[in-house]
Amino acid sequence: MRKPLLLSALFASLALALSGCDDAKTETAAASAPAKQASQDGGNLIVGITTGDPLAVNPLYASDRTTLTIMQALYAPLYSFNGDKIEWGLAESLTPSEDNLSYLLKLKPNLKWQDGKAITADDVVFTFNKLLDEKQHSFFRSMFVYGDKPIQVSKIDDQTVKFTLPQVSAAFVGTLVQIYPIPQHVFADEKGDMEKSTKNDAPVGSGPFKFKEYRAGQYYALTRFDDYWNGKPKLDAVTYRFAKDSNSANLALQNGEINMKMVDPQDVTRLKSSGKFDFVIYPEGRLAYMTFNQNIDSMKNKALRQAIAYAINKDELVQAAFSSLDYAQPAASILTPDTLYQTNDVETYKYDVEKAQALLKESGAPANLKLRLAYINTNKTQESMGLYIQQQLKNIGVAVELMPMDANAMSQRSLDMKNTTYELSLGGYIMGMEPDGYKSLYMSNEAYNYAHYKNPAFDALWNQGATETDKTKRAEIYKQVQQTVANDMAWYPIAYTNAVVAVDKRFAGTKEAEPKPVYMFQDLSKIYQQ
């Protein structure tokens, strides 16, 4: 395949798929806005967080929303996408070879870590060597292994890195966008598990704000990094304040103790009435879903899983959980609409109580079947989903015990590959446009396969999809992936969601900061206090 065709087509697809935030809109609260003031340096932006404390603040392990949100301010990516163009971060170019089996990544000159040390090709090579080390169990590893062979990463000079692929991959450029380098000089002497390293407690990053202080359960404080590659940030500081629940966080938001927060759809009307906030709403490329935990014998029963799916009116569920279809749409596939090769041409399990009851009987489930449904206790939409699912399954004679859990406890339970604490759980993910990125959630032996669904033929499809370069054939592979999940009802997709971020009107620059799934904004250096 010729180099120009591969990159031009792929970059365009990446850009369009990741540019959902081009659809972002800002709604001003129904009150007279203050007169527009000029941008000024200084100020402390306080961001409300209700998803628990961060876990390992290290880009090779960050997977929960809290850690990813904080990490975005601490670290910088090699590149990202906005609209129909690539936006270079630490890198300034990525050039493929004629046979597409290698790529040269060129870093920008004069880059610095937040401790003043130079960022070089050595850091990028070190980062990849660590994530490819099986002992380090980074979930990124599987994304850079093709046909059981990992990519090779080598230094050409201080600013140039060479990636050598064992075979041509249509997924490489799309997965590389997810990697944020870590500093070699900080972690070089770390012999053990980097996820548990105490060096993550005071991270040294490359982003617009650097670590200052962390108080568990209270706040995570950052200060401005003047040598940030994209220009000196306008704010003096960013502080992430942790709240135990959305109600207390919303009260702090209204009192001016918090300046920015991702809010639940149920809270938008009340917050709008205060006239204090602008609302940035954008497609988040997120799937809300329910997992069937097949570590428990009852959940290995396909007929029972299908009975549960038919017993739920998905349209009503989405309406109940998100208040309005303005904030979410019913989902058919495990791939989100911004993902390449996503299709709705799968079994959708249209609400059918009679079919659900027949399948329940076919499953041989006991008459007094009781299932436990876990979800995050601060998530209002998940709470609403849980209550609705509980009522719907009661209609077919299945009792559901609701298990609201602390976010960190939920994450730890989910990552336990022997977890039998609950049969059902609610969750969500944002994986971007490259479908290969999803395989860490679905392949048999991956820690993030919370369903513990094991199917060698299914695993083979994921591996084929990563390396197939013919777009028609690749589309068919991922269609089979989506159909397999739907036919087996191994996971239950619920909704494709929109993000809603409330921003205190005293702060501006959100358009320039670029709304971004998970993180709220791509680059907080652009936000300023008016």
UniProtKB/TrEMBL annotation:
The keyword 4Fe-4S does not apply. Residues 86-446 form the Solute-binding protein family domain. Pfam families: SBP_bac_5. It comes from the Bacteria. Residues 1-24 form the signal peptide. PROSITE patterns: PROKAR_LIPOPROTEIN. InterPro entries: Peptide/Ni-bd, SBP_5, SBP_5_dom. Transmembrane segments: none annotated. Keywords: Signal. This is Periplasmic substrate-binding component of an ABC superfamily oligopeptide transporter. It comes from Buttiauxella ferragutiae ATCC 51602. The lineage of its organism: Bacteria, Pseudomonadati, Pseudomonadota, Gammaproteobacteria, Enterobacterales.
